[in-house]
Write a structure and sequence with these properties.
Blueprint: H1 3-24, E1 32-33, H2 56-67, E2 70-75, E3 78-83, H3 86-95, E4 100-101, H4 106-111, H5 125-138, H6 141-146, H7 148-168, E5 176-179, H8 180-197, H9 210-226, H10 232-235, H11 244-273, H12 285-295, H13 303-334, H14 337-350, H15 366-378, E6 384-390, E7 394-396, E8 401-403, E9 408-412, H16 413-416, H17 463-480, E10 481-484, E11 509-514
Parallel strand pairs: 1-8, 3-9
Antiparallel strand pairs: 2-3, 4-6, 5-11, 6-9, 7-8, 10-11
Helix pairs in contact: 7-8, 8-13, 9-11, 12-13, 13-15, 13-17
Length: 525
């Protein structure tokens, strides 16, 4: 197929539409259009920015210096408005939030039961009911507390395996080289899977055959990776056909995941049939959802599809954020060993060395909490957050900027969280800032200085669970192991990836050495 005639036709249509809009737009006093960045290509606009080696959020951060805190880019057939201002972001996602909704993504459509994920489902009665179920039945503080045994159990397995690896290498005094990016991926994915469906498919899996575990490991990893991709289909539908391979792979993964979920649903039903329930404290999210839909009917929602969609959504949201933060936190720490020393002093004072960290300790580990906040600030898991579709026109900044219906909004959290007008010495890793001048800043988005979980009514409802997973895993790791760079002379590579999710682009190879008594690494796994 010749692509040039297609592109020529598309360019002609876009030019004609642009001329028509400009001729028929009514002038408004004191209102100016959001400045459009230079360098847009015909048809594809600035999409090449999303496919370069330089992270898009960093590119947009540099562009904000030239064009100001609000500027526009052309992403295929869409105008995308990039917000790099705390005050304007606050105005948009409080005053004008009713005019915003989630745009659909190819991954959500093909892998999320036709946009049935809570994260991407359009706003409306069904979304409100789904969010209510998630908030009250799945993600409440009481429910998060009740599932602590899953998180503790997976930490036992993961860190017990690290101890065994060190022992197998002759208990080397200087430690054993480990890729903690891979270890954290396994830990967070297994933790999410255990909480959601009661199975673990990563690493040594006691409840899954090795070959099956390897297949499902790849399946879950593919599922998570698909949601980190930038696709033409989401911004330039006319060229979506060029991505037929990745769409084919998404459809294949969706079918395989559905088979797995159907098997798990059948297991649940069999348990109930034979009265083999494990009690409220051991129920997984799948158990809770199936119990809920036995007694609740939501008009327009298919209970079975909604159950499966929410399960996959929880696995996606629970593991990806935790992986990113843990990997960047340890990367920052090994480049700043004095911070590790201070964190371990806190752990030894509060926990001691005669037991492992428990989740009940987290409230007292204020320096660990500060490390997590500072990691969120410097390396937000999703650097371009609050991705929204504008439903109706509105103006911001006292009418300075006009935001037209049909455009897309993105807030550059990475840029705002490094803004020197908001943060002192913003490029420096300094957890102490959250114990002094910024001690009142939280990660819930209320301050609009630090919002790794999004903004507005569509912000992530799983903030308590996400923070619990990260705080516990990091505290447990630092308490259990000495950790250092492989080379004293070279700092850890801090190359960022270029995708929707900002996972470290390179491995996290560090030297780890156990720092507790051997019996504290030996559990019944």
């Amino acid at each position: 197929m010749e692509i040039f005639p297609i592109l020529l036709t598309l360019v002609s249509i876009l030019v004609a539409a642009s001329v028509f809009v400009r001729l028929h737009r009514r002038p408004t006093k004191n209102r100016r259009e959001v400045p459009l960045a230079a360098g847009a290509w015909p048809v594809i606009g600035h999409l090449l920015f999303y496919d370069s080696k330089t992270p898009t959020h960093a590119t947009f951060g540099d562009m904000s210096v030239v064009y100001g805190p609000v500027f526009a880019t052309k992403l295929g057939s869409y105008t995308s408005i990039i917000i790099s201002s705390q005050e304007i972001a606050k105005e948009i996602y409080t005053v004008h939030d009713k005019f915003l909704d989630r745009p659909g993504l190819t991954a959500s459509k093909l892998l999320g039961y036709d946009d049935s994920f809570l994260t991407f489902k359009p706003y409306g009665p069904q979304w409100r009911e789904m969010r209510k179920i998630a908030a009250t039945e799945l993600l409440s503080s009481i429910r998060v507390d009740m599932q602590s045994h899953y998180r503790a159990g997976e930490a036992d397995v993961s860190f017990g395996n690290l101890w065994k690896l060190w022992e197998s290498k002759g208990r080397a005094k200087n430690g054993v080289l480990v890729d903690m990016k891979r270890e954290f991926q396994d830990l967070t994915a297994n933790t999410s899977l255990m909480m959601v469906v009661g199975k673990r498919y990563f690493g040594d899996s006691p409840n899954c055959e090795k070959e099956e575990a390897m297949e499902r490991r790849k399946l879950v990893r593919d599922f998570l990776d698909f949601f980190s991709l930038y696709l033409f289909s989401d911004f330039l539908p006319a060229l979506g056909w060029t991505e037929w391979r990745v769409k084919r792979d998404m459809k294949r993964a969706a079918k395989e995941l559905d088979v797995v979920l159907e098997e798990l649903i059948a297991e649940h039903k069999n348990k109930k049939k034979h009265d083999l329930g494990l009690g409220e404290i051991k129920k997984t999210y799948l158990d809770l959802l199936m119990d809920t839909f036995e007694h609740t009917e939501i008009p327009g929602l298919d209970a079975r599809t909604t159950t499966k969609a929410l399960c996959l959504n929880l696995i996606l949201a629970g593991s990806e954020t935790a992986i990113v933060v843990l990997v960047w936190a340890v990367s920052l720490l090994v480049n700043n060993p004095h911070v590790i020393k201070k964190a371990q002093e806190e752990l030894d004072n509060i926990v001691g060395k005669n037991r492992v960290v428990e989740e009940s300790d987290i409230k007292d580990l204020v320096y660990i909490q500060a490390i997590v906040k500072e990691t969120f600030r410097l390396y937000p898991p999703v650097p371009l957050v609050a991705f929204r579709h504008v439903l109706d026109d509105f103006d911001v900044a006292n009418g300075t900027y006009h935001v037209p219906a049909g455009s897309l909004l993105l807030v550059n959290a990475w840029k705002i969280q490094r803004d020197p007008s908001l943060w002192s010495d913003p490029e420096r890793f300094e957890p102490e800032r959250f114990l002094t001048v910024d001690n009142d800043v939280d990660v819930g988005g209320q301050s609009f200085k630090l919002f790794p979980f999004g903004l507005g009514r569509r912000s992530c409802p799983a903030i308590p669970l996400g923070l619990r997973m990260v705080h516990y895993a990091l505290a447990r790791f630092l308490h259990s192991f000495e950790v250092a760079k492989p080379s004293i002379e070279e700092d850890m590579d801090m190359t960022e990836s270029n995708g929707l999710v900002n996972l470290k682009a390179t491995p996290l190879e560090v030297m780890v050495t156990p720092r507790l008594d051997p019996h504290l690494y030996q559990f019944n796994m």
